[in-house]
Amino acid sequence: MTYCVGLLLDAGMVLLSDTRTNAGLDNISTYKKMFTFERPGERVITVMTAGSLSVTQTTIAQLREAIDDPEATADQSIMLAPTMLKVAEIIGATLARVRSSINAKMEMSQVSTSASMIVAGQRQDGAMRMFLVYPEGNFIEATEDTPFLQIGEHKYGKPILDRVVRMSTSLDDAKKAVLLSMDSTLRSNLSVGMPLDLAVIRKGALCLGETTRIEAQDPQFMAMSQAWSDVLRDGFSEIQI
Amino acid sequence: MTYCVGLLLDAGMVLLSDTRTNAGLDNISTYKKMFTFERPGERVITVMTAGSLSVTQTTIAQLREAIDDPEATADQSIMLAPTMLKVAEIIGATLARVRSSINAKMEMSQVSTSASMIVAGQRQDGAMRMFLVYPEGNFIEATEDTPFLQIGEHKYGKPILDRVVRMSTSLDDAKKAVLLSMDSTLRSNLSVGMPLDLAVIRKGALCLGETTRIEAQDPQFMAMSQAWSDVLRDGFSEIQI
C-alpha cells in the first residue's frame, strides 16, 4: 500500500508521500510516488499516487507524453490546461483510460487494478487547488471545511490531522502534522515505508518550494518521532480516568 | 461498523465495545455488542461482536440455546466446554454455520454477510485466554507479543495501543488506553458511536468484575477526551522539526 497526504492551507500546500511498493509481503520495493510538473512563474502541479504501480506509472508516462507532444492541445496536456479543474479532468480521464485498458488485459486472471491520486497545484492568476482523483476518474476537491486529502492507508494517520489541521495552520506546523500523521502510519502498518518525500508549494510562488527526501535514518525525523512518543507516553500517564 | 478492543494483561482482561449499528448511513441504531456468560467461581466468558447484526444476533442466540439445553454436551455448550480453546471452537463453528445459512438465503441479492468476534475468558484452573474469531470460524489468540485484539474499525485506534499497551500494563492504564483508542476512532469515523460498554475481568476472579456503560455525555469520559486533546495539542506545539 501507500500513504500520501496533502494539506491545502492559507499559506500554501504541503504534500507528503511514502515510497513503499509491494506485490505481496515478500516483494517490497521503493518507488517515488510524488511527481512535479512546473513552469516556474506560470504553473506548478504536484501529483501523488496510490494503488497499482502499473496503473500509476503508465498514467504518469502518458501525462508526460502529452506534455512533450508539440501538437497536444489544452485538453490533453496538463501544462497547457487553462485551469486546475481542467488539469484534474485530464488526469482523471488518463487514469480511468489506463486503468480500464490494464483491467481488460487482466480479466482472464480475475484480478482488477485500481489507483487514486492527489493533484495539487496553482496557475498564474488562479487559486491553489487540491483534488483527490478516484480510480474511475471522478474527483473531489479540498475545501475550507476539510483542508486535507489522503490516499492509501489513511486511517492510522487521520486522528492527528482531524485534531490539528485548519486552513490557518502555518506551513511549519503543517509539515509537523503530516510527518506525525505519517509516523503513526509507519508504526502501525508494514505496507507503508521510508524514505518519505515532502514538498511545500507556497501560495503564489508558482514553483515547487522546499522538497525533501527523508531517509529511514534521518536524525531530525527520528528526533521528532521520539519526541512525539514522549509526548504521548508522558501525557498518557498524566491523564486521570 | 463497529469498534471493539480486548486487552490480555498480566493483571486481567479489559474489553471495550461501541454500540452503533447501521444499515446505510441513514439507518443508525444502538445495539449492545458485548455479551457475558458466567458461572461465578467456575468460568467467565465475554464475547464482543462486529459485522452483520443478523449474523451476530443469531450466533449469540444459538450459543444461549445450547447453554439452556439440558441435553447439550461439552461440544455444544460454551458453559460446559472443558477449555477456553473449546469455547472458541464452539463459537467459531456456530458463527460459520449461521453465516453460511444466512448467506445461502442472500445469494439471490448477491449480498454477502460477515461477522467476527472477540472471545475472552477464564475457567477454573485454566489461564485467561482471548481469541479473535474470524467469519469463517477459525481464530487467532492474543499472546505476550501482541496482547490486544481488535475487530471492526481498528485502524484509527491502533497507534495508541501500539505505543502504550504491554502485558505488564496495569488495569487502570489499560482502561485509559482502550478509552483513548476508542476516542480517536469516534472522532474520525461516524460508523462508531457512543454509548460504550467497558468490562474488566480480573485474573483468577472467575466472574465479571467492573462493567460500565459510558453514555454520550458521560462527564468523566468527556474530561478524559478533553485532557487527551490538550496533551496532543500542547505536545504538538512544543515539538520542533
From TrEMBL, chains A, B:
Official protein name in the record: Proteasome-type protease
GO cellular component: proteasome complex
Record-level Gene Ontology MF annotations: peptidase activity
Keyword Ligase part of the UniProt annotation: no
Keyword Protease: yes
Species of the source: Thioclava litoralis
Domain of life: Bacteria
Key words, A-Z: Hydrolase, Protease, Proteasome
Gene Ontology biological process terms in this record: proteolysis
